[in-house]
Structure formats: C-alpha cells, structure tokens
Amino acid sequence: MAGSEAAWQAAHMGIKVVIHEMRPKVETFAHQTGNLGEMVCSNSFRSDDDEQNAVGLLHWEMRAANGLIMAAAEQHRLPAGGALAVDREPFAETVTARLKAHPNLRVSYEEITELPDDGHWIFATGPLTSAALGEAIQRETGAERLAFFDAIAPIIYADSIDMSKAWMQSRYDKGETEEERTAYLNCPMDKDQYEAFIDALLAADKTEFHEGETAGYFDGCLPIEVMAERGRETLRHGPMKPVGLTNPHQPDIKAHAVVQLRRDNALGTLFNIVGFQTKMKYGAQTDVFRMIPGLENASFARLGGIHRNTFLNSPTLLDSEMRLRSKPNIRFAGQVTGVEGYVESAAMGLLAGRLAAAEILGQALPPVPQDSAMGALIHHITGGAEAKTFQPMNVNFGLFRPVDGLKAGRRGRKDRYKAYTDRAKDAWQSWLGNFS
Ligand SMILES: Cc1cc2nc3c(=O)[nH]c(=O)nc-3n(C[C@H](O)[C@H](O)[C@H](O)COP(=O)(O)OP(=O)(O)OC[C@H]3O[C@@H](n4cnc5c(N)ncnc54)[C@H](O)[C@@H]3O)c2cc1C
Fold it and tell me: Which GO terms describe its molecular function (predicted)?
C-alpha cells in the first residue's frame, strides 16, 4: 500500500522510481500473490464519510492529492453502506498495472536486505518486513527500537471518561512535578465489580493468532484475559493493583482493584489502559471495558490487539519528514512507521513520496499542516506520541488539535467533527498548493 502510493506520487512529480518488491520470490505468511497493493486480510478501507470520520477524511485528502490507492479503490468499489469496500484482486491488479505503465516507474522483484548509504530510498516494507532487512534495521537503530509484535492496549477519548468516578494520581504520588504526580487516570473497582469483570474477561470471545504468527506471548505483554486465566487474583497483583492510590471521591474506602490509564499523546486527548493488551474480539472488548467504573460511556479511539507487526520507534528515529535521523537518505513509510491499517499506510506513503520528490527537486516545502488528517498522523508518529510506550495508531480525531469554542463531550461531537474536517480540508488543499 504505502510503497505503491509513494512510488506513484514521486513518479508524478517527475522522479524516476524503482519499486523493489520481494514477492513472489520471497513470500510472507499473509500475502497470497505477487501483486502490488495486495490487501492481506479484510477488503475494506473503512468509512468513506469525509465529514464525520477521520478515516473518511484521509480518503478525501488522498483523492485531492491524486492518490492511486483511492482511485483504484473507487474503480473496484463494492456496495458496503458507508464503507469503502473493494474487490481485492482486480484492485491489486489495477494498482500493479498502473504503476508498471507509468513511464517513470520500474518494478524490480528482489529482496532488499541492507539500508543503503546513498541514493534516495523509501522503505515501506510493512508489518511483515523480511527477517534479513529487520536485522539490518536493528543494526542501525538498536534492537530495542524495532518491534516485531504490537501489543496494543485500548485507547480512549479523554472527554468520554466520567471524572466523577475517576481521578488523576500517580501511584504513591511519585514524580518531581505536579504533572508527573497526576500522570495517571484511575478507575476504582469494589470486590463485586472486580469479580464480575474477571467473569466477563474469562467468558469473552477471543481471536487466535494467525498461522505463522505464533511466537507465543512475549515478556511483559501477556493479554489480560490470559492473566485472568492464570488466577482470579493475578490482575489485582498486576496492572490492576490498588496500592498507593487514594480515591478523592471516596477517601475512606479502599478500592479492591484500580484500572489505570495513561496519557497517550501530548495533546492529552487520548488515554490508553495500562497493561490491557488483549486478544478479545472487538465487540467483546467494548462490552467488557465499559464495565470499568468511569468508562461506562467510553469512546474508543482504537481497540486493543496483539499482532505480528514490525514497526519502528518512530518518535525517536524519524524526523518530521519521515527521514531516518541517522541516515537521512532513507525514509520510512506505511505500517512500519507505526501507523495501522491500509488507509493510514497508503497515506504515509503518499506523504513520503511527495516529500522525497520535493527534496530531490530542491523544492522547499512548509511542514505538513497538523490540522489535516495527514498532518495529524505524521505529527503523532514523528513526535506527538509518547516514545516510551509507542504502539501503532489508527487515524482518529483524538490526534487533532481542539477547535476553539466548541463543546466537549458526546453532545457536541457532530459539530466538532465537522469543524475538524472542514479545517483539515482547507489546510490540506492549501499545502497541496505548494506543488502546482
Ligand atoms: C495478518 C495481517 C492482517 C491484516 N489485516 C488488516 C486489515 O484487515 N485491514 C487493515 O487495514 N490492515 C490490516 N493489516 C495491516 C496491513 O498490513 C496494513 O494495513 C497494510 O498492508 C500496510 O501497508 P504497508 O504498505 O505498510 O505494508 P504492505 O502492504 O505489507 O507492503 C509491504 C511490502 O513490502 C514487501 N517487503 C517486505 N520486506 C521486503 C524486503 N526486504 N525487500 C523487498 N520487499 C519487501 C512486502 O512483500 C510487501 O509487498 C494486517 C496485517 C497483517 C500482518
């Protein structure tokens, strides 16, 4: 997805591009063909609503930028209500054919196993980056900065949390500053609530690892339901331990268990549930997590999961134009940068292609506007996200700067989203004006 879009954009700006694709010579466990733009699982690009949905807005921005992935998706669109679903095989065949037909493009079927020292490169090798290249990246970045699995805890919009039940406090009030002493958001449970929560966890529908994905659970990242299976008290001694915390709403009552949430972005609009990586199915997750006091009406920016996924610690490794800081002739794009999903990956490919081409052509560009969906996403992965706990991210309105004067909370949501999308479209159109 990302490589195809990056190549298309750069080629359209007059740059000669070679796409290096290892398939079909070297296979992955998920891809089935040698086509470019292959969708590995679902055939959906999710919501196409560009006024009320952040993914739909990314569609809009990619269409406005002559995006190949969006054009091919439109051509092979299937009826799917408000979603953009596509007929996957003709879609990938169209992407491949259009790239091969472009006079500035050539496809070379080979695996790349090193990070080259010269030339302009975009590495868009995805969640299943080949092992040899993964090793080369680790040699360059340090082993701990390239992950091979994601372990995503659910992420919740701050304004959907009921603060009449939750409170901000770090365990034992640890920290030098007031901000550090109040870094966590706490949701208390009494014994009955805890027991009901454990029952629900044990009963919930879970997904299995894909074939070829079974590296087992890795250190420190056990799914919460697996912890619960090991004993009903395990969570109370792990991520839900109630120690070092006092509930200001009920200071005399000691909580039986506490669920902690941590800020997930610098804006403070998103919080992740600490230690709550999970393999529960999405429907089960919302039901179970809304049992947590304070989260009864939680809106989820993304749900939890554990997947095979190769991704960089982009906030520390990449600059604001997706260049590897230690080797700026190399850009990364797509899922390997820590975005998640076909659309987000293609979007980051689109940006990388344009930014690389502008650099080669000696065109100075203003920064990608943070108020666009593209800008919100690139800003998140290259700086806005917490580097220490960085996990892949979908585009969502929690990544956007608030629009002044609009009501927070559920009631104002429709107006707020419309304001975000209007502002984003203006910002993106005006940035695209730099290319004409
Ligand atoms: C099992 C699985 C299921 C998924 N399901 C979904 C889903 O349903 N919906 C969704 O939105 N997202 C899904 N994803 C995430 C999905 O992979 C991304 O959304 C999207 O494909 C990422 O785009 P990309 O361009 O970054 O990577 P890819 O589309 O994977 O493209 C990377 C390309 O790089 C090639 N490559 C890798 N290493 C090398 C190398 N060393 N040399 C040369 N070529 C190389 C690969 O063959 C591949 O063609 C899934 C991922 C996995 C692993």
Answer: flavin adenine dinucleotide binding; tRNA (uracil(54)-C5)-methyltransferase activity, 5,10-methylenetetrahydrofolate-dependent
Give the pLDDT score at 381: 96
Structure tokens at 239: 């991520």
Spacing, Cα 2 to ligand 1 middle (Å) = 9
Residues with CB under 6 A from ligand 1: 1-3, 20-23, 28, 30-31, 40-42, 111-112, 124-130, 133, 210, 308, 334-336, 341-342, 345
The dihedral built from the CA positions of residue 383, 384, 390 and 392, taken in this order, carries a sign that is negative
Q: Per residue in 345-356, pLDDT tens?
A: 999 999 999 999
- The pick from 8, 9, 20, 22 for probing ligand 1's pocket by mutation, whose C-beta has the most ligand atoms within 8 angstroms, reads 22
The residue out of 269, 303, 337 marking a domain boundary is 303
User: What residue owns the CA closest to ligand 1's atom 36?
Assistant: 125
Boundary residue ending a domain (276, 303, 330): 303
Q: What is the pTM of this model?
A: 0.87
State pLDDT tens for residues 226-240.
899 999 999 999 999
C-beta neighbour count of 24 within 10 angstroms: 12
Residue 163 has pLDDT above 90, yes or no: yes
Q: How far apart are CA 234 and CA 224, in angstroms?
A: 9
